[in-house]
Amino acid sequence: MFTFNLSAARAARTQDAPATRGSKRRLLQLGVAAAAVALIAPVTTAPTQAATPKMIVGAVGDATGLSSKVGAHLAYHAYGSLGGKVPNGKMVNMGSGSVSYHAVATAKAGSTTYNNIVRWAKTLKARSGVTLFAYHHEPEAAGSVHLGTAADFIAAWRHVVNIFRAQGVNNVEYTWQMTSWAFATSPSARNYATKWYPGDAYVDNVGSDPYNWYNCGPGSGKWQSLQFVTDPSLRFARAHHKKLVIAEWASQSGSRRAQWVKDAKAYFVANQSSIRAVFYFQFSLRSACFFRLNTAAEYSAMRSMATDTAHFTTS
Questions:
Q1: Residue percentage of the chain with pLDDT more than 90
Q2: SS3 of residue 158 by DSSP
Q3: Main-chain phi, psi angles of 27, to 5 degrees
Q4: Which stretches of the chain score pLDDT less than 50?
Q5: Separation CA 235–CA 184 (nearest Å)
Q6: Using CA of residue 278, residue 280, residue 285, residue 291, what is the dihedral sign?
């Protein structure tokens, strides 16, 4: 704050000619004006910038076994079903089971489906900390075609979220989980991600499941980096001002996989401000797809994430 220096003014008056009443008034007016300017002047000190939140690092499937091999704890991404037990995990999926999207979307209070949603809501509400929650992952995938259309899914997702909110659940992040291909396919395709998006008001995180299939499953025989298969979903998340959760990520086995995991870490760190969590798929879902990390070099690459406390957290 500006302080008018009366002593300096007196000294100046003593050295110069005697001041008149008018000059006294002008001197005081100048001091008051300067003080006013100082009071309204903007603060020039740069504000303190908040640190970029750390990314959650974990695993799907055999998280306990992988944690043991890595020598460090990994968060767990667990899958359950609407009518089953609510699993424990930092991220949990409520699969629709045999209940169609339309049936979920239209579930009335007192019905079995409605009561199951409420049970999930109350169970998660009672847990400490934040849980990443998804209703029926990969709803657009071929295995879920029988459950309904994109419009049905959107209505179901919103109904689930509304029920959770009505139950006062405030410790979950609604994480919409799609295949990575849904973000890269043609806008005219049935499984194009935008067609299945419940809307910004109903989604906290955009979820994606990127895989380097290589020579298994839908793979084309091309070895693809995590960046290549993840970039489209990262762009989508940023366009909607959401964080990206890489809810499943893995590579087919091969001599290059340890380096592939190292490169994945570099990609995560480079995009840390846009990524909420990453869960390696430590499971072999298809007979010809060997996603489980199983060499010392691969465990070491995963360990470098789990122990990198500057960028990652496991809780």
A1: 81
A2: helix
A3: -65, -45
A4: 1-28, 30-45
A5: 10
A6: positive
C-alpha–C-alpha distance, residues 104 and 144, integer Å: 14
Q: Mind listing the pLDDT tens digit for each residue in 177-194? A: 999 999 999 999 999 999
The answer to whether residues 193 and 183 touch, using CB atoms and an 8 Å cutoff, is: yes
What are the CB-based long-range contacts (under 8 Å, 24+) for 225-228? 225/260, 225/263, 225/264, 225/267, 226/251, 226/260, 226/263, 226/264, 226/267, 227/263, 227/267
SS3 of 234, please? Answer: helix
Q: CA 139, CA 207: separation in Å to the nearest integer? A: 12
Cβ atoms of 91 and 277 closer than 8 Å: yes
Angstrom distance (rounded) from CA 18 to CA 138: 88
Q: Which among 118, 204, 115, 199 is positioned nearest to 154, based on CA atoms?
A: 199
Cα separation, 147 vs 139, in Å, equals 8
Nearest to 282 by CA among 14, 15, 131, 64: 64
Owner of token pair 């499984």: 191
- Whether this prediction's pTM lies above 0.70 is answered by yes
Give phi and psi for 29, each to the nearest 5: -65, -40
Is 55-313 a domain of CATH 3.30.43.10? Answer: no
Q: Where are the beta strands (DSSP E) in 155-242?
A: 172-179, 205-209, 211-212
CA 67 to chain centre: 22
Residue 127: both structure tokens together:
């847990």
